[in-house]
Amino acid sequence: QVQLVESGGGLVQAGGSLRLSCAASGRTFSIYRVGWFYQAPGKEREFLAAIDWDNDNTAYSDSAKGRFTISRDNAKNTVALQMSRLKPEDTALYYCAAIKVGAGLDYSYWGQGTQVTVSS
Questions:
Q1: Phi, psi angle pair for 78, to nearest 5°
Q2: Per-residue pLDDT at 103 exceeds 90
Q3: Residues 55-62, mean pLDDT to the nearest whole number
Q4: Over the chain, what is the mean pLDDT?
Q5: pLDDT tier at 105 (50, 70, 90 boundaries)?
Q6: Which residues are registered as beta bridge partners of 73?
Q7: Strand partners, 110
Q8: Looking at the predicted structure, is the pLDDT value of residue 92 above 90?
Q9: Maximum CA pair distance of the chain?
Q10: Which sign, positive or negative, has the C-alpha torsion 61, 3, 24, 18?
């Protein structure tokens, strides 16, 4: 099993920045990829960005490109999402999730989420 815990959410003004962190524990050697998702009130959860655990391959959604950067620190077993130029529509619950090795592209492990609120 892998446990994921998000942190770093909070209240920020439009145009500001936040850095979210996802701390992984447990069988971290079984992680293939870690992704960030967000879910705005009344909407479906959406993909933002992902990074492979053992290399620097990354992927971004169109809404994240140019504003968000995903990075990984294997020594600390953390994955960060640096968010800049935040907009009120970025207000959401942000989750990190992990794909385990050999499980295709299914995100098997999820954190509890961290709230980001962007004021106008």
A1: -125, 150
A2: no
A3: 94
A4: 96
A5: confident
A6: 78
A7: 97
A8: yes
A9: 43
A10: positive
Q: In the numeric block, which tokens belong to residue 6?
A: 């998000």
Beta-ladder partners of 64: none
Side-chain-facing half-sphere of 29: CA atoms under 13 Å: 0
Residue 71 region by backbone torsions, left for phi larger than 0, else alpha for psi between -120 and 50, else beta = beta
111: which residues sit within 8 A by CB, 6+ positions away?
4, 5, 6, 22, 95, 96, 97
| Residue 102: pLDDT band with limits 50, 70, 90 | confident
Phi, psi of 90 (to 5 degrees): -80, -5
Q: Which residues pair with 71 in a beta bridge?
A: 80
**With contact defined as beta carbons under 8 Å apart, do 111 and 6 qualify?**
yes
Is residue 56 predicted with pLDDT exceeding 90? no
Structure tokens at 4: 């994921």
Residue 53: closest CA among 33, 26, 76, 37: 33
E strands, the chain, in order: 2-7, 10-13, 18-26, 31-39, 46-52, 58-60, 68-73, 78-83, 92-100, 107-110, 114-119
Task: Report the alpha-carbon distance of residue 31 to residue 7 in Å, rounded.
Answer: 19
